Sequence to fold (631 residues):
Amino acid sequence: MHYLSVENLTKTYADKPLFENISFHINEGDKIALVALNGTGKSSLLKIIHGKDLADEGKVWIHKDVNVVFLEQDPVLDNDKNILDNIFQFDHPVINAIRQYEQLADQDSPDPLLMAEAMRIMDELNAWHFESVVRQILGKLNIHHLDQPAGTLSGGQRKRIALAKILIDMDLEHRHTLLILDEPTNHLDVDMIEWLEHYLGRDNVTLLLVTHDRYFLEAVCNQIIEIDNGTLYTCKGDYEQYMEQKAIRYEQEQASLEKARNRYRKELEWMRKQPKARTTKSRARQNAFYEWKERATQKRPQEKLELAMKMERLGGKILELKKVYKSFGDKVILQGFDYTFRKGERIGIIGKNGVGKSTFVNMLLGKEQQDSGKINTGETVVFGDFSQEGLQVKEDMRVIEYVKNIAEFFPLADGTKLGAAQFLQRFLFSPEKQYTYISRLSGGEKKRLQLLTILFRNPNFLVLDEPTNDLDLPTLGVLEEFLLNFPGCIIIISHDRYFMDKIVDHLFVFEGDGVVRDYPGNFTQYRLEEVFTKKLKEETEKAEQVAVTAPVAEQPAIAAGKKLSFKEKRELEQLDMDIPKLEAEKSRLEQEMSTGVMEYEALQQAAERIQRINSELEEKELRWLELSERN
Fold:
């Protein structure tokens, strides 16, 4: 099914063309990543498609049966409402029933009559399956305390709530849905990102997204669209294939440019030799000369950040932590942490949201005080602090003014100096962009300016807290090359797995409750080991559970006080209905497969369905056993 068409779309911002006459199509099942430099129109294009912005020219056609849902980079919530009402704010009978049920179930002692009525309505609307989908989405995105006001939430919590809302919207609607996602992995931890990869990777999901997470892009997308110098290019395939095609395209463009320059030199020589009087033939050649001149003098936007900076000398003593303790009430961040940093170390910090990663680096920087213990910093250490807070600007000013307030010149490794304007150009800020007010920069351009101002101070110890958020892929590639050649120390907090794999030597794994493990390897190695260990533990626990529950009749009753909740009773009733249905479906499929008349494709689908049924039955039977013992 054809979902959407973009035809000859043009958009200009502040007299600068973002894109001109671009066209593309989205069909059912397409999973498309949109790639471009920051400030060249990615978010504008998404907003035009969703109807939040208007194009200067061209049109967007959306199939009448397609529901378009949009996750913005900075989503807007109703601060006067709580989490529950922000997620379930659209009016739908099933949503209204689930909202009422979840509100009661979240209470310690719900009114029995109200709960009974809520469950009756859930039964009547057959809403239990969708309620389990909602519960899974909220649980995986770590969304709890649904009565909390939206106005008290952090930026990360707001992004996760907005993401949950559109995923629930997508699963609720029976009609076709196009998901438009602007940086969906920002503020998600690794478990959430991996779950989202699986969720969006389903065949029935159609997707257009902007992301800097290359592993996520690789796992989810089957097509990449790039806006480059106002022109649109399409690549069918994964990120690696896109990079190969882009390199070939650049080579061809460079060859074409060289050819145009050679022809231009010849025509320029002819023009200089010609007398003022022109024949019709010579006037035609003169007109052609100006066309060659335009082609020969065009410039491709510079896509390399030149970061050959001069680093301040780093002495023998760098940073030492001795028996450092830190807590916030009952929440323990560090418990007697010891570590001595050495020259050239590249440490990645990982862990779930809320375990204290940012608090840890803030203590290293002196922005947060430890409860006890010592943090000794060497006299030669100059920190470069790239924080999540972003640029701190007291009043709006032009980009060039902001940089000159730090320093007029920047020393390079070869002993020469760059003026502020020259330095800005190396960071892809054109002369006209340098005189733009900071408030008018895109999110990614502000991040690039923040990085520039940090490096302008010549640090020798970089502390980068989520540096990849909002940066475009070309800038990320160059930043990675710079960090690989940076001779000082680096600490990185990031959920960008590709970025971490490329840069860091080892990891500080924040496991919670003050436990910090020093892991000697990169992120992928750690994750593989973690998955293997988790699977081994689950299999061991499963085997032990089977051994313990075998003589069911002889098992002692569960201790008093652990009776089933309303939700668990309803779950047990649902399991009593689901298990026979699955067994009947499995038996029917096995009989159909044994007839020998099924076509190969149908046979394969039936076999895959039986495999899924077996998995569901195993899970539901174990859960039924657990609940029935407490009933």
Q: What stands out?
A: Residues 319-519 form a domain with the Rossmann fold fold (CATH 3.40.50.300).
